[in-house]
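Hey,

Quick one before I head out. I ran the complex with S-adenosylmethionine overnight. Inputs first:
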Amino acid sequence: MTTERARYFDTWYANMAESPLVDEIQRRHLGLPPGLPSTSLLTWDGLAEVTDELRLAPGRTLLDLACGRGGYGLEIASRTGAKQVGVDHSAVAIEQATALADRLGREADFRVGEFAATGLADGSVDGIVCIDSIQFADPPEAAFAELRRILVPGGRVVLTCWEPRGEPATERYARLARLQLAAELARAGFDDVTVVERPEWQGAERAMWEEAAALEPGDDPALRSFHDEGVESLRHWGSLRRVLATATAP
Ligand SMILES: C[S@@+](CC[C@H](N)C(=O)[O-])C[C@H]1O[C@@H](n2cnc3c(N)ncnc32)[C@H](O)[C@@H]1O
């Protein structure tokens, strides 16, 4: 079933493919190489930490959940020698991720799926990374239960996200405010739950949003969306803390 939000992301990804400037600005601020398309706020340094936290050995299976265009997961798989699976509810994102893997000459299994219905078997993945996306899980409990179901015992889950410092001000922040990562991971039965603040990642984020907010988007819908998100993010700057959450399946 294609949801309204999946259709929104389909259009978002289709627009982005027509607007290389957004990618260029994003990569420059996040310190990412040209072959790594991101639609989030994780820096190159942050990716190294995320990769370490997954503790993947060669030949193990990595799931990049809400993988978007697949860039981060492919990079982690390349560094660790893991087999790559990517799931996202946007069919357009999955097409773009598949095309990226083909261009890079990499094997990867990208498929359409939902946070709470990945289509993967019980205990079939060794590590799960979910970058700047788990706030879209609705309800969150179903997504966290799915993470636990598909991970092998001892498998690691690594999430990058934001948590509110105070009361939410807009729908966007209300969604983040509902998310209590440590509580959700613990409720789903994970061990070794940690949630640590990463203020240093927010420096690059702020500089990127300042550039986005200052640009004139004209009639380019991807630039318009990027600009509007920059304006909105700066308006509420300081209301969110940047976090890295990790846990181990029992
Ligand atoms: C901010 S983007 C991040 C994409 C990618 N992780 C990255 O870092 O480049 C959020 C992603 O979450 C996906 N998403 C949102 N809701 C979802 C759901 N219910 N199930 C699966 N994916 C979802 C969107 O399609 C989008 O690709």
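The domain at 4-248 is CATH 3.40.50.150 (Rossmann fold).

Talk tomorrow,
K.
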